[in-house]
Design a protein that fits this description.
This protein has 252 residues and is an alpha+beta fold. It has a domain at 87-206: 2-Layer Sandwich (D-amino Acid Aminotransferase, Chain A, domain 1), CATH 3.30.470. Helices cover 27% and strands 33% of the residues. The chain has helices at 46-63, 99-105, 134-139, 145-167, 216-219, 225-235; strands spanning 6-9, 13-17, 23-28, 31-34, 39-42, 70-73, 78-82, 85-86, 89-96, 112-122, 131-132, 171-185, 188-194, 202-206. β4 and β5 (39-42) form a beta hairpin. α1 (46-63) runs parallel beside α6. It is globular and about 50 Å long.
Length: 252
């Protein structure tokens, strides 16, 4: 097998050149990080679960007409995605107060927000991904006003989809973050959802018990991260009962 060219390695994924022009192979690692990578560990099976779950969510978005970079899953840890120019922003959608919002504003975790609140963070690990306003985004040319209108629309459509899917399996979508990429078709630019959608990038709470089923399990030492992610996968029908992330018996 030919040695692939690595394009980028992040905290949770490695990107390689794809087999066709304009494609990238996205490899999901077992590495878990928190607090801007100050806390680290390797959680066996985490990458497999995130690969499965991101495939599930991206396919769901495709079915409702939300453009995204996903093409197909290649194997247990890799998926083929469309290459795009990532806008240097994390787009955060919050339905309930939690995490940094609760700390910043003194709002009790779990408080329902009057409407979904969309926030933007500048993607820079060295700076800790600081919160920025639309004024910053416009002033520094990270995205145009038309881009921002499109990003807001995409983020709210993703929120509607994820909230409904999670509600159907007894999970509360507290918040999530996505990244947006630009693709070019001739002179025409289009924005698409990129990166991943998984329990790494969402806060997910059991609707009855409040049990956390996301990366807060790792951040706050609340138990097994693999068990939490596996529970999400089982409820969504992505992984059958009795399967494990090491032998997941994927459902196609």
């Amino acid at each position: 097998m030919a040695r692939r060219k690595k394009i980028y390695e992040g905290k949770a994924k490695t990107l390689f050149e794809g087999p066709e022009p304009g494609t990238i192979v996205q490899y999901f690692k077992d590495d878990a990080t928190a607090f801007n990578a100050e806390k680290r560990d390797v959680i066996e099976g985490k990458g497999v679960l995130n690969n499965m779950l991101s495939e599930y969510f991206m396919n769901g978005l495709t079915q409702i007409g939300v453009p995204n970079h996903f093409i197909r899953r290649l194997n247990m840890r890799e998926q083929l995605v469309r290459a795009c120019e990532i806008i240097p922003l994390e787009i955060i959608v919050r339905n309930f107060a939690a995490g940094s919002m609760s700390k910043r504003l003194g709002i009790e975790e779990g408080t329902a927000l009057p409407r979904p609140i969309v926030e933007y963070c500048y993607k820079d690990d060295a700076l800790g991904d600081p919160l920025v306003s639309e004024e910053h985004i416009a002033a520094f040319g990270w995205a145009s006003q038309q881009d921002m209108d499109d990003i807001l629309s995409l983020a709210l459509r993703v929120n509607d989809f994820l909230s409904g899917v999670m509600f159907g399996v007894g999970i509360k979508l507290v918040d999530f973050k996505i990244e947006i990429g630009r693709v070019y078709e001739g002179d025409y630019q289009r924005l698409i959802v990129a990166d991943e959608i998984s329990p790494d990038s969402c806060r997910l709470w059991d609707m009855e018990t409040g049990q956390k089923l996301d990366k807060d399990v790792f951040r706050r030492d609340l138990g097994s991260l693999t068990d939490a992610y596996s529970e999400v996968a089982r409820r969504l029908g992505v992984m059958p009962k009795g399967a494990t992330p090491m032998k997941p018996t994927l459902i196609n």
